[in-house]
């Protein structure tokens, strides 16, 4: 008696292999285009905002942001603010004197006097600013909060664009 092996071990139809290669290559091309689109989305989005703003002369909500950063002393706030400005990561930094802060730290409620930085920049630079501030800030977990600017003076927002470098 002759033993028969399942068809999955033997290719009896070599044409089937070639005909399935075309759909597979189309699927691979689709996947590559999808991955490239997703990877380039932030760049394409920013470019689209810039083109729209340049053509229409209008403001695009969310293109600029404000960051709040608390510092333990005025000197720390000045040092961080100055270095942010020197690196051209922000158009403007305000230093507000003496704010009273209450917060939880390691299970206890703490009171402190802090200095508040108000930083205005492009939204595209927020993550770079956060990384830089975390690297130079003396706190273990510095308070860095960002808010998008939804509207404002067109002249001021244009000045912000000119003051902050494109990185």
UniProtKB/TrEMBL annotation:
This is Protein CutA homolog. The keyword Transmembrane helix applies. The lineage of its organism: Eukaryota, Metazoa, Chordata, Craniata, Vertebrata. Keywords: Membrane, Transmembrane, Transmembrane helix. It holds the Pfam family CutA1. One of its GO terms (molecular function) is copper ion binding. It comes from the Eukaryota. One of its GO terms (biological process) is response to metal ion. The chain crosses the membrane at residues 21-44. InterPro entries: Ion_tolerance_CutA, N-reg_PII-like_a/b, N-reg_PII/ATP_PRibTrfase_C. Belongs to the CutA family. The keyword Membrane applies. SUPFAM superfamilies: GlnB-like. Homotrimer.
